[in-house]
Fold:
Amino acid sequence: MNTHQRSLSVAIDPKKLDRLAQVAVKVGLRLQPGQDLFLTAPVVALPLVRRIAEHAYKAGAGLVTPLFSDEEITLSRYRYGSDASFDRAPGWLYDGVAKAFADNTARLAIVGDNPMLLSGEDAQKVARANKANSLAYQPALEKIAGFDINWNIVAYPGASWAKQVFAGDEEDVAVGKLAAAIFSASRVDNDDPISAWAAHNAALKTRTEWLNGQKFAALHYSGPGTDLTIGLADGHEWQGGASMAKNGIVCNPNIPTEEVFTTPHARRVDGHVSSTKPLSYQGTLIDDISVRFEEGRIVEAKASKGEAVLSKVLDTDEGARRLGEVALVPHSSPISKSGILFYNTLFDENASCHIALGQCYSKCFVGGADLTPDQIAAQGGNKSLIHIDWMIGSGKIDIDGVKPGGSRVPVFRKGEWA
Ligand code: ZN
Ligand code: ZN
Structure:
């Protein structure tokens, strides 16, 4: 038995893990011969990182550089780190990462730690550390948000995350269940995952092409607790599945992904809407959100749980009360059918139609790569430090597309494509 086998939980199928590594390199990143790869991962994901490095080098990668994090080390900082350290971040490291991205290095992030790790820590310290980190990471993040390079996120079934999701189960059982859910959602539980992704990308493309052809001015949502009109930004473009980064590489940034999404108009959202799943935000669970919009702005917000955190989020800046994303996901999506709350946006946002408060994506505009921030704002794109997805879809939601002249076309009926 080699070290790789020894560090892999018996509950994780090594064959499917290898396929996930292959999907990350060949579908998620489409890593090009000679291209360098920068990779971040929790130490628990080492077995996956090793498989990815092997597939990357076989695909002709230049250098593969991994950077690991560890839950125990993160907690040590909160327990024993000096107070002043919570306003600091390793800017020197992020400057190097930004330089690597400028040199066309691909980026892979593996999630696998418990998303609720910091829920018991001092919320002020968590907020300060996040802020310092966001500021230091800004030069590198701009290149990811602007889609300058091919990047991808995949998930690894870490034990602490599994125990958070399946709290009642023994560790091995919980890891086995989370592994099965990740493998199925990532389409690696069949023999030919590369073809499965090609078919899935084609299906998503059919949806985005239909929506782009309709040129809707707005979407109207109706269902229990919901009567909402979301105006779409002028010149918006629907996206979904594989898309082309500015370096010319067609990649799938999120594995898994089920959504098609675009930019709403920051000043044309009216009515009320209720959340259909809890939202986990920096260690706090916010549940039963209901909000009312007037001219794009949230003027009333309630939640049965986590309301104080929600109102703090809404006060982050002017754009935090307005929408930056609207996404359509059928109620029958595999992740929705699993019925699992993952406490992680990569999975939970793919279980349901959702909207996001805050920053919009410039790539969701026709010719978005060439638009200035002022042009994006003039066309209705929102600007904020936050981007928080929350779920508003269910099997009871109907959505109509509203044409500029006011005529309506059914888009969703009872949570499914009409
Ligand atoms: Zn989304
Ligand atoms: Zn989003």
User: Anything to note?
Assistant: The chain has a mean pLDDT of 94. The first strand starts at residue 37 and ends at 42. DSSP finds 13 helices and 21 strands in the chain. Residues 279 and 404 are 33 Å apart (CA to CA).
